[in-house]
Amino acid sequence: MQSTSNRVYINEVAPRDGFQGESVFIPTAEKVALIDRLSTTGLAKIEVTSFTSPKAIPNLRDAEEVMCQIRRAPGVRYTALVPNVKGFERARACQVDEVNFVMSASESHNYANLRMSCEQSLAQLAEISHGARPSSIFVNASLSTAFGCPFEGRIHEDRVFAFVQSFLDRGVQGVTLCDTTGVADPRQVQRLCEAVLKRWPAVRFTVHFHNTRAMGLCNVLSALNAGMRHIDASLGGLGGCPYAPGASGNVCTEDVVHMLQQMGYDTGVNLEHLIAIAQHLPALVGHEVPGQVAKAGPADRRFLGPAPIHLLDPVLDWLDRCDV
Amino acid sequence: MQSTSNRVYINEVAPRDGFQGESVFIPTAEKVALIDRLSTTGLAKIEVTSFTSPKAIPNLRDAEEVMCQIRRAPGVRYTALVPNVKGFERARACQVDEVNFVMSASESHNYANLRMSCEQSLAQLAEISHGARPSSIFVNASLSTAFGCPFEGRIHEDRVFAFVQSFLDRGVQGVTLCDTTGVADPRQVQRLCEAVLKRWPAVRFTVHFHNTRAMGLCNVLSALNAGMRHIDASLGGLGGCPYAPGASGNVCTEDVVHMLQQMGYDTGVNLEHLIAIAQHLPALVGHEVPGQVAKAGPADRRFLGPAPIHLLDPVLDWLDRCDV
Question: DSSP H helical segments within B115-262, as ranges?
Answer without folding.
Answer: 118-132, 157-169, 186-199, 216-226, 253-262
